Recover the amino acids of this structure.
């Protein structure tokens, strides 16, 4: 459904900012919308002019979040849905579904320690997606992403709705961190920085490719190693600073909003939209892998290769494969056993 907004004030403002001449209606759902990530993500999606309908779903507390966000004078209409019996309504007609539902880490835990609770949550939500909006792009935030994405794929395969172009593990926060840390060390303007981050989303499976970072800074090897380690441990740095009160929420909401915006731009036909994401892949021998992907009208248009790697990055790539392979296998096994 397309609505020409060219003559309205909102339409002119969109045109000035380089959006297409006709802005399509787009429905976005956030599942887990009352949580630490869900609330600021709901706010940021409410501010996105590409969204026309915003569905906020959680098992509790969504009416308040939805009422609050709905007063903001931006384009989208907001509706809150609470409890499983309202999940279908939240999902019907969705173009993009963002999933930050599930428990976060406490100090001392790995992301894999969340598997037992979050695997079941993600499986249930993906079954509903298969039923109510099988064509939506799914942005998976719930951890462990290295396993929850394969779980989602298996659920969709069983339902007969799997389209590998439409399932994404959100690894944007790794890119956001790599950019911030690199800009600080290289003393360059953070707004100009680009750094691909590949692999997965846990510990050593997060592999930032600082050899490809721009603007070039020729940092010494020990700085590159320290930046790599800080990017890999970025989530843990926040978990420890929050001291039992959860993990990254505000920076994650920012990253999730950037990735969802890229998905919407791709759907709307904006050319050359490229972001890193954990997707079905043939870039390595592993069935899922994060790398740069080009987004288009059907989701992933092209999974881009890794480009030239330094010796240090080649070693990092080989070291991450066993862990990533095992996390992917764990997700696939869970989905097929439960
Ligand atoms: N991909 C990434 O880069 C990142 C992922 N995360 C992950 O995101 C997830 C959420 O983190 P937070 O928002 O901090 O947790 P939170 O506990 O603050 O919020 C989670 C929300 O999910 C809801 N929820 C639980 N079961 C649900 C279900 N079946 N359906 C719908 N909603 C449900 C809860 O009611 C709660 O409101 C965690 O698994 C965390 O590890 C966190 C940061 C970064
Ligand atoms: O570290 C965590 O548990 C949350 C997360 O994925 C991140 O912040 O990258």
């Amino acid at each position: 459904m397309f609505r020409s907004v060219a003559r309205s004030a909102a339409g002119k403002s969109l045109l000035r900012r380089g959006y297409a001449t006709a802005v399509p209606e787009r429905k976005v759902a956030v599942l887990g919308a009352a949580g630490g990530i869900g609330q600021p993500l709901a706010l940021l999606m409410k501010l996105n002019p590409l969204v026309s309908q915003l569905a906020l779903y959680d098992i509790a507390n969504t009416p308040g979040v939805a009422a609050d966000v709905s007063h903001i004078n931006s384009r989208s209409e907001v509706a809150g849905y609470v409890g499983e019996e309202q999940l279908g309504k939240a999902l019907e007609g969705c173009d993009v579904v963002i999933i930050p539902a599930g428990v976060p880490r406490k100090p001392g835990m790995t992301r894999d320690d969340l598997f037992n609770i979050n695997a079941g949550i993600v499986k249930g939500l993906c079954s509903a997606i298969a039923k109510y909006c099988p064509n939506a792009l799914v942005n998976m935030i719930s951890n462990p992403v290295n396993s929850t994405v394969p779980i989602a794929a298996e659920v969709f395969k069983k339902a007969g709705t799997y389209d590998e172009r439409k399932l994404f593990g959100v690894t944007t926060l790794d890119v956001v961190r790599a950019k911030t840390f690199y800009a600080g060390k290289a003393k360059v303007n953070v707004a100009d920085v680009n750094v691909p981050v590949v692999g997965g989303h846990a510990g050593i499976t997060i592999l930032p490719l600082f050899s490809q970072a721009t603007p070039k800074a020729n940092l010494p090897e020990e700085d590159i190693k320290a930046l790599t380690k800080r990017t890999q441990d970025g989530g843990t740095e926040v978990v420890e600073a929050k001291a039992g009160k959860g993990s990254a929420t505000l920076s994650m909401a920012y990253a999730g909003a950037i990735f969802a915006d890229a998905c919407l731009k791709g759907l709307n036909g904006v050319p050359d939209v490229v972001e890193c994401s954990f997707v079905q892949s043939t870039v390595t021998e592993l069935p899922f892998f994060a790398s740069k992907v080009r987004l288009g009208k059907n989701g992933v248009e092209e999974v881009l290769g890794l480009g030239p790697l330094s010796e240090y990055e080649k070693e990092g790539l080989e070291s991450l494969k066993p862990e990533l392979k095992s996390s992917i296998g764990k997700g696939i096994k869970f989905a097929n056993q439960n």
Observations:
- The radius of gyration is 19 Å.
- The chain has two domains: 27-171, 172-330.
